[in-house]
Structures are given as structure tokens and as C-alpha cells.
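Handoff note, outgoing to incoming analyst
You'll be picking up this chain. Sequence as last confirmed:
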Amino acid sequence: MTEKGSRLRLNLFLARAGVASRRGSEALILEGRITVNGEVVTELATLVDPGRDSVKLEGKRVRLQEQARYFALYKPKEIVSTLSDEKGRPCLTTFLPRGVQGLFPVGRLDYHSEGLLLLTTDGELANRLLHPRYKVLKTYQVKVKGDPAAEALDRLRHGIVLEGRRTLPVTIRRIPSRETRHTWLQIEMTEGRKNQLREMFFRIDHPVIKLKRVAMGPVRLGKMKPGEVRPLLPEEVDALKAHAHLAAEKEKAPQRR
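Most recent structure output, in case you need it:
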């Protein structure tokens, strides 16, 4: 149970308030950065009443968002997928829409990659979109060096071992191109480890030259240009929520009797 009467688990409250995803909120709690009614709380099972309890992150009051906000961003290359960077590199704050508080990115694209990145204040949905168990499909267009043999691509399709764990199966198809020295591929996958695609193709000796995410679940990059940000259409938000919910239900179904 995550709710009891009008009370919520603290991590769920923080997620709904747009502080971070549910897992990110758990980390904040365990780090002792959250207080409830003036007391530092590190117990993940803590319940709070949004109407009565005072919840603060490092001294700043946290309140539930009246209405969650959702945006699509075309992240350009050489931009860090965070709201700040200790090395001083350009980050996402440059592209955030004015007047919208509490936005954070849903996952990341590495520094040299580009494409679709979702921004939201809805921590609960972000948690579902990021968690592997919900199997939310992500689509990429990748340019790799040379021309990978069919056998090499089949290895990636079925999964290879990276850092002691086998990758989940992926869908790979060739994209027709005038390129003669290199190859364009479209890849669909539900996993999202750090630099996963780059590591996978490095293992078969065909390094990634260019990587662009073109879709996340039912939301597509379309004709957006690098640096462009737009609010998601209501039907896109509904489809995104339905996609995550249905994926979760499919995961639970085999356990039912």
C-alpha cells in the first residue's frame, strides 16, 4: 500500500510534487535531505498528510503540483542531460520553458547523443517510464562505423554480457542510406543502461558515430529541431500514461491465479 486515508508514502509524495522520480526521491530520503515537520526522516515507509504535514527539501517547502506538466525536448549534441553540471558544461537549463517550476528530465541521453528527451513535473510517471520492469520502448537511429555482418547484429539482438549482466533483446533493422563507408540502423529497446548502445556496438567492432533517440513510448521526435522544446499534446500525455500502465499490467499478469 502506498496510501492510507489521505496520507501518502513520502517517496510517492515527493514524486507527485515533481521533486524527482520515485527512486530519486528514495535517494533523497536516505541521504537525510528531507524533513517532515522539522525532523529529518530517513525511513522510506514514512507516511505524510499533504494537507497537514510540512515537508521540506534542504529547508525549502515541498508542495504537491496542482497540475503536472509535460514537454518534449530535442536535446542537441554536447549538452549534459542534467539541470546542472559540476564541470561547467552546458546543460538543460538553457532549454527549459519559462515560468514552469519543478521540471526535470526523464532519464538521460549521453553528452554526444541527441534527440528526444522528456521533461516533466510528474515524478510518478517518470518512475514508470524509467523502470525496466515496465518495458517502455525507446527508438533510436544510429550510425555505426563500417558495415556490421548479420551474425554480429544477431548477437546484439539476442543480448550480450555488459558488466556482468546480459542485455535484454533488441530489435535492429537497417535504414536505407547513400552511405557507403558506414551504416544507419534503427534500434528499438526497453533497457537504458549508461552508454549501452555505444558499448554494444563497440563490442562488435563497429563504434557508434552518431546516435539520435527518435521516440519514447508513443511520443515521437517528429520534425523537431535541435534545441526545440514543446508541450506534449493532451493525447500524447494520455497515450504515454496508458503505455506505461499497460506495460505494468502485462508484467503482473502471469502472477495472477
